[in-house]
Amino acid sequence: MNPNIETNPLLERLPKHLKQFIKPQDYSDYTPINQAVWRYVMRKNVNYLSKVAHHSYLDGLKKTGIEIDAIPSMYGMNRILTEIGWAAVAVDGFIPPNAFMEFQAYNVLVIASDIRQLEHIEYTPAPDIIHEGAGHAPIIANPEYAEYLRRFGEIGCKAISSHKDYQMYEAIRLLSILKEAEDTSQEKIEEAEKAVADLQNNMGELSEMAQIRNLHWWTVEYGLIGTVENPKIYGAGLLSSIGESAHCMTDNVKKIPYDISAANQNFDITQLQPQLYVTPTFSHLSLILEEFANKMALRTGGLSGIQKLIQSNALGTIELSTGLQISGVFTNVIEEEGKPVYIQTTGKTALSYREKELVGHGTLTHPHGFGSPIGKLKGFNLAIEDMSPKDLQAYSIVESETVKLEFEGNIVVEGEIITGSRNLHGEIILISFKNCTVTHGETILFQPEWGNYDMAIGKKVVSAFSGPADVNSFDLVNIVPASKTIKAKHTDERDDLEALYSTVRNIRDNKDSKSELQSVFEKLKNYHPNDWLLAVEITELLKDSDEKQLLQEVLDYLEQLKEKRPEVAHLILGGLDLIFHKEAV
């Protein structure tokens, strides 16, 4: 299959900093065992989920082109997803939460293209194509849910993180990789688990990103819909887990009506969830999202918003009442009576208006930081932004005049005005000075030797959010995860087993003669005595054949394997149920 991912016009809209996470899906990397794992999980899921999943799931499988018998290709998925206004890209495992959500804001589904090992067929903490492709993709065919997902991404990517959030992301990513990789020592897994646990116990107050990740987990990943007494599954984590989709429907899992309190309910990706939230409708999800967004610095701004950005120690943006946006790493705020009166960034800073960088005010102009008073002039009822040209003339706030502006909070700006910039509404948003001194009491905040001074105009901070206002203002490329996923090892034994799976697949796909099955089964017994899935696949091919004796031999072998490996007995039974008692799938 063609692994080309450039098959959907939505992908052309993606900014460079998101495209860096995309990797080609090399379809030839999927082995016959991988294909068998996909097929087993999909057959089990479709059979079971037809009874317990939201009706959008089965409808969505058809609309998004997800096949039961073969791992989907990005080429095929993108061709079909175009029809419902979405696209898909392949990535390497977990990507940073902000990036993941920003992809959603562009109507792009992020799919970890690796697939779980046979040993983790029921559940893996690592994102894989079963989870993403068979879990997320079908539900987005529901327009109401798809809009929730897009809106969630749009709001979520603006959530401000704490400096510990990225540490937690890297720790969880590493743990998921180690747990999924074969031959990882128990010592390494325990070490990674301890690192995650230590961080979880020392996160302090939950950041906006931590809270919105919780909402994402309890809806998009592990959500139920309907009533507490009769819920249906729609969360991708449940839809893609043949173990947890059944477990979640038992009384062992507490069902809770979904509300905003879910934002403070943490989760453990390595364990079955002890409780799940039930939303009555998809529209209710959007109501809770808006309720949460109303509490975010994105909409509240103010002193607390600036403080969140300072605590994050990461690139962020504040927007002033004039619409001027300041993007950089915020390091200081001077406050007076609970209001910010002066803000300061350190390092590269850019000024924008309506998400577009102001000409001449990018990081080349402000490479070492930016500081400006916020608020009104002392003793004036009228803010500078609200002054008419006559008002500005009256107070000598015009070109070539030397002025002394005293702001509330004891911030004083004194210098010669060079020029001013206005927004589309005619409000002045920026004033540039030469020979300028800025002070706060005895403290010098800016002095003439540093060059020209640009002063932002705005009586208050109306918004604060993660990331830059204009994504083109900063080099956001090469912010990639530290850890890499670990591929399955090639051994002679493994290659031999793959060849047997390939033979069986060819017999099924091409309706070839079943005469080779006896030889395949003998090799399986003699050289791969712990493998169970191939014997189940052989059973399926023999069910309606004349090879009754061989069929009985394989069934007897599976019975012995159930006793020998009790941990896979229920998987064997599940496969046989599909063969002998299957309902229409």
Write a structural description:
The protein is α+β, with helices and mostly antiparallel strands and 585 residues long. The chain has 22 helices and 17 strands. It has helices at residues 9-12, 16-19, 32-52, 56-63, 74-81, 97-105, 129-139, 143-156, 163-180, 186-200, 208-221, 236-239, 244-247, 282-293, 297-300, 302-312, 389-394, 492-510, 517-527, 533-542, 548-564, 569-581, and strands at 87-91, 108-112, 224-226, 231-233, 254-257, 275-279, 315-320, 324-336, 339-353, 356-357, 371-373, 402-407, 411-422, 428-440, 443-446, 453-456, 461-466. The strands form 4 sheets. Strands 7, 8, 9, 10, 11 and 17 form a 6-stranded antiparallel beta sheet that branches. Strands 12, 13, 14, 15 and 16 form a 5-stranded antiparallel beta sheet that branches. Helix 4 packs across helix 7, helix 18 runs antiparallel to helix 19 (517-527) and helix 20 (533-542) runs parallel beside helix 22. It is elongated, with a radius of gyration of 29 Å. The protein starts with 8 loop residues before the first helix and ends with a helix. The relative contact order is 0.10. Mean pLDDT is 89; it is low at 1-6.
